[in-house]
Amino acid sequence: MSKKPDSQLQNLFAAHHSSDWQEKLVQVAYRFNREYQRETFELPEEVQAMPIYREWTSGILAGKIASPFWEIAKPQKNQHCIDIGCGISFLIYPWRDWQAFFHGQEISNVARDTLNSRGPQLNSKLFKGVELGAAHQLNYPSEQFDLAIATGFSCYFPLEYWNVVLAEVKRVLKPGGHFVFDILNPEQPLAEDWAVLETYLGAEVFLEPLAKWEKTIKAAGAKIVTQKSGELFELYKIRF
Q: Could you tell me the CATH number of the domain that includes residue 112?
């Protein structure tokens, strides 16, 4: 049985003025709750016939869509880092090797519960807990973090939403801190097929040109420090 986003999260979303954002947040949370619980997705035959579907079911696709943020923004010892839309990343990435403090915020209550249960067992010193909530309302004080990370979800929301996210990230970063996040590059050969697959999995994808993203970054008062291309996603490190 699929686990719906819990009432606390529904209330968080409902508090925002945009019902359109609320709907998308609930859809994305539900889509990832199902994935984290390893539920079966029933997709049309024409989608199952696509090569990208076979890559998804075999696990090959996961490697193509992952953005190795640490290659352009490696967390440093004793830095406080916030992973926005963290999923179960603390269980996967080498935070113990980095010796950096991990704080998370996540809209999937399944991922939040999993990390808050297992994270302290893995490393109670570095793991600082995961808050339930969306990227546009970070549940943390201002100027708390040296590094902010947000990979794997920017494409599910319109640029107007990301205007608010960028302002929130700027608020919680210490002066001189960095924000690293990824953007779906619509020019990549796999982009349209991946967007179709994700839509059938329950989360509509926005295919925005990189130029529009870069204009949004500039309008937020940020400067692109580093950029790295992947098979689907473009990884950016910016500084406000």
A: 3.40.50.150
